[in-house]
Design brief:
Blueprint (H helix, E strand, L loop, with lengths): L2 H77 L1 H25 L13
């Protein structure tokens, strides 16, 4: 082979080698650039989803508190039925005593005004 031809082939080999090294050296930065590009596009949507989820969580917590409070109120009403029965018994007893007192004084219950609740 002639020397100029050999130099041309050597130059081609070194150019290809240099190009390969350049591509390999820059490949990670291209990947990182693509990753950064993806994050830049996706981040606003993800941030919006996060804000929506936080708002829904707050609303859910408020609803849960309301339901728990209502359940507590119902339970307290059920527990207070004992006291209502006691008051009812005492009212019946008071009416019976009033009727008995009126009967001993000679008045009929129809003649008396109804008791006031004040």
């Amino acid at each position: 082979m002639e020397e100029p031809e050999m130099q041309l082939k050597g130059k081609k080999v070194t150019d290809k080698f240099t190009e390969s090294v350049y591509v390999l050296a820059n490949e990670p930065s291209v990947a990182l650039y693509r990753l950064q590009e993806h994050v830049r596009r996706s981040l606003p949507e993800l941030a919006q989803h996060k804000a929506d989820m936080q708002r829904w969580e707050e609303q859910s917590q408020g609803a849960i508190y309301t339901v728990e409070y209502a359940c507590s109120a119902v339970k307290n009403l059920v527990d207070s039925s004992v006291y209502f029965r006691s008051v009812e018994g005492l009212l019946k007893q008071a009416i019976s005593i009033r009727d008995h007192m009126n009967a001993t004084q000679g008045h009929s219950p129809e003649e008396l005004p109804p008791p006031s609740l004040a």
